[in-house]
Amino acid sequence: MLIVGERINTSRKAIEPAVRDRDVEFIQKLAKDQVDAGATYIDVNAGTLVSGEPEALEWLVKTVQAAVDAPLCFDSPSAVAIERAVAVYDFSRGKPMINSITAEKDRFDAILPLVKKYNTKVVALCMDDTGIQQDAEKRYEVAKNLVNQLAAAGIALDDIYVDPLTFPIGTGSDVGLAMLRIIEGIKNEYPGIHIIAGISNISQGLPIRKLLNQAMTVLSMGKGMDAAIIDPMDRYLMALIASTRALLGQDDFCMDYITLSRGGKFEGL
Ligand code: THG
């Protein structure tokens, strides 16, 4: 299970001024705290800075990799911003992840050459020029089309992380089932591919969002999700992921679970 720590994102109120002011200490602490909490990738997103995004993303890459060894996830729709980020990335940390490509024609054509040139992993969002389909079968077709296009371009399935995307569950009772249907379908259709999700969209607009995020994470892992963009500082969520891995046969003899328990990670839960 790959845990992408989501906290370094200028859409969070506390982060934008820190990135604008190039507050090295603040960002580096955020990176270290997430790695200490169990993040295996660190997401960097400066999307709200608009015209300043490429420069800010480059600064975030340099700043974060000076603090932690974890590989990075470049979170931007902009090929210009991603290329600035990847150009200063230290590949000895492991393959970075480009987050993301879609089946929108312009975006696909702009991002694909970067994935190939720099040999990165890539997040494939299930949307095209018609937007995000609400209907599960239609969105699933978009997903298959996108994966087929990536595979035809020579991208290995092992480097593709399909993101099913989701609407908030408050907008319709079938929304959760649609997400699970897409995860299950893609996983069965393309053995060896990966599934990632930014789980928190599901809970938008509802109280005690973390409960819905926690439940959706477990359900999605049950269908084959093997990567998640989450807040690793949510200790209960991280403990649930460890428990779910053990229950799904992904943790031989519960060794990781036991190690985390002995390390005090479940204390007070
Ligand atoms: N899929 C992919 N990438 C993504 C997403 C996705 N990247 C962005 C996002 N979704 C995941 N990242 C975050 C980062 C921070 C928060 C949520 C998702 C967050 N949100 C608080 C909220 O909405 O209440 C904001 C609180 C604040 O302003 O501080 O913290 O789905 N591939």
Give a written overview of the molecule.
By secondary structure, this protein is α/β, with parallel strands linked by helices. 46% of the residues lie in helices and 13% in strands. It is built from ten helices and eight strands. The chain has an eight-stranded parallel beta barrel with strand order 1-2-3-4-5-6-7-8, surrounded by six helices. The longest helix is centred in the middle third of the chain and has 17 residues, at 136-152. The protein is globular and about 40 Å long. The model has no long low-confidence stretch (mean pLDDT 98). Bound molecules: (6S)-5,6,7,8-tetrahydrofolate. The site of (6S)-5,6,7,8-tetrahydrofolate has 14 residues, from strand 4.
Keywords:
269 residues; alpha/beta; 8-stranded parallel beta barrel; globular; binds (6S)-5,6,7,8-tetrahydrofolate
Chain-wise SSE layout:
Layout: E1 2-5, H1 15-20, H2 24-36, E2 41-44, H3 53-65, E3 72-75, H4 79-87, E4 97-101, H5 105-118, E5 121-125, H6 136-152, E6 160-163, H7 175-189, E7 194-197, H8 209-223, E8 227-230, H9 235-247, H10 255-262
Parallel strand pairs: 1-2, 1-8, 2-3, 3-4, 4-5, 5-6, 6-7, 7-8
The structure holds (6S)-5,6,7,8-tetrahydrofolate.
SS strand fraction: 5-15%
Q: How confident overall, as mean pLDDT?
A: 98
Query: At the fourth CATH level, what is the homologous superfamily?
Result: Dihydropteroate synthase-like
Overall domain count: 1
Range of helix content: 40-55%
Q: From N to C, what is the helix and strand string?
A: EHHEHEHEHEHEHEHEHH
